[in-house]
Amino acid sequence: xxxxxxxxxxxxxxxxxxxxxxxxxxxxxxxxxxxxxxxxxxxxxxxxxxxxxxxxxxxxxxxxxxxxxxxxxxxxxxxxxxxxxxxxxxxxxxxxxxxxxxxxxxxxxxxxxxxxxxxxxxxxxxxxxxxxxxxxxxxxxxxxxxxxxxxxxxxxxxxxxxxxxxxxxxxxxxxxxxxxxxxxxxxxxxxxxxxxxxxxxxxxxxxxxxxxxxxxxxxxxxxxxxxxxxxxxxxxxxxxxxxxxxxxxxxxxxxxxxxxxxxxxxxxxxxxxxxxxxxxxxxxxxxxxxxxxxxxxxxxxxxxxxxxxxxxxxxxxxxxxxxxxxxxxxxxxxxxxxxxxxxxxxxxxxxxxxxxxxxxxxxxxxxxxxxxxxxxxxxxxxxxxxxxxxxxxxxxxxxxxxxxxxxxxxxxxxxxxxxxxxxxxxxxxxxxxxxxxxxx
Amino acid sequence: xxxxxxxxxxxxxxxxxxxxxxxxxxxxxxxxxxxxxxxxxxxxxxxxxxxxxxxxxxxxxxxxxxxxxxxxxxxxxxxxxxxxxxxxxxxxxxxxxxxxxxxxxxxxxxxxxxxxxxxxxxxxxxxxxxxxxxxxxxxxxxxxxxxxxxxxxxxxxxxxxxxxxxxxxxxxxxxxxxxxxxxxxxxxxxxxxxxxxxxxxxxxxxxxxxxxxxxxxxxxxxxxxxxxxxxxxxxxxxxxxxxxxxxxxxxxxxxxxxxxxxxxxxxxxxxxxxxxxxxxxxxxxxxxxxxxxxxxxxxxxxxxxxxxxxxxxxxxxxxxxxxxxxxx
Lengths: 440, 328
Hints:
The complex is a heterodimer. Chain A is an alpha+beta fold.
């Protein structure tokens, strides 16, 4: 550890790479204190690990090659390698008072591509996760329909099915940052976000089965079978896009994602994709439910609250390098992140490394789906100088993701929902990346 | 085979899209609908018969609601129910049921469907009317002695009735946005320098960031010396007794090592340990068992713990033994 102040971040060449974590610390004084407190242990364990690991490095034969591996079905339902234990959902300390009405964030900093593994898709529940027996679950459809009906899961899965890739973003994603920087990493700034391949039935088919009165019915009430009996209003104008979903990434929904049945309203704030869906009622006025009057309303300067702010506007964020990370070496790095829009496809993503003065367009991972996460990336050679990383999405409508200054000019700083401002990550000369906002 | 083929040809001629009705599901009877049709519109449509007074509401509130919402609806541990009227335009808006809500029947709807937090849909309509009246009274919206029913409740005018707008572009997919950034590419003029960043004292607020990043590649998580285990990584989360306490709803009001609305379990353990304030008066385990079953008040302040008669004895015993053992 003696030479860690000699250069900006550094990766030791193999086989000494195991020392990386111990030597990775940037050279700020508080991090020196950190290392003084805990670094001894890290260094000690790293040293021991180095002895262990060198046995498995060339020219030696790795120990896992000299014995049989685990048999099949060691895990009938496969789980990630134990070396991936850092990749998990987390809650933000102090954000909520009870784990029964809380949120766990997706670790975006560790994910590839556009699909969120089902077990890492963010959780947000209002009264816990019910364990619903699919054999006793029912979907009731009534109100302005000619034939009120009750469907079993046998009925729902018998309808012709479709599979589509869509994001779900909580309306409160990035809500902690309206006034100022509040959390350190992209998991907490943007992690109420996931994207899956969803399988289910077009809602229009289910409603037509019940003889929906398309002339009179203007709104749909969706109600969950959880302890909150959560309710939200869905406008009939969005009907053609809505799915009644039972599948996620090729298997049934996870309990925390609404097993066995949920709504999926693409491009709309996540709370509208009601989980554990038990009832749909057709009506001609919106319901003004608790989650549409006390919560999920956008407080403006002057005290007015915007109601029924359904659409998630275009937004993007760089996931690597991002806050709470340290770049270990100068030279080539791929800047990569995610972009999405509730109004359609992502058309373009621009990236700046100088805080928004100059921009260049990033590569988009194909195919680009409508109202789905879109992976972007661009090449970057870090010269060891401070930098300010930003991404800016342009969606199919031509809408350009706003700056904080632009967003706050209209909506102030006391809102909670729909913060889609451009995110800035500051890189300092030591390689440490931190969350900053450059517009008051 | 032939029949299938002919049917397929017929379907192809009729168009590829299958058409309703398929005949799936079964008709919903009036009785079945009545049991689940619990929503109430802001104009009061859907309110059932019944009535309740402010005074009746106070009795129910003190027993079933005050432990989370505070005796006067002032607790911000959970959603604050009272106060803050007129504050939404200020720099420090006080967001409460009373200061935000536009229509009183929505309050009725929510109490009926989701409260009490640990036992929703157990209140009778009269109780919901009474509680609604009491919450309105806590906000000085209706006077003491008021009785509400399905005729009078929709006529209650909430202070923030006119505080909502739908004049924005986010109700429609093709709505008009309220910002108009331009995708400048060269020599743009952004604001200079950071205006906000994480305060130094909060750097480790989210645990050791090195342990939240995959240990692979040229970009690592920043190591932090963190004494307390980071939330979400706490191995105690999977401890069977804690999992049980979580499932039973204990953690809605108690923390392991921090007070929520009730005391922390570690504080309870200390109180009943030898020499603690609660060490005399009989065997600690049976006294705590009784408190879980029957509720209690006074030991930790005026906020009562509601009775949890639904907790089975073996479960209660397991939780009590774990708490008295230090809630480790």
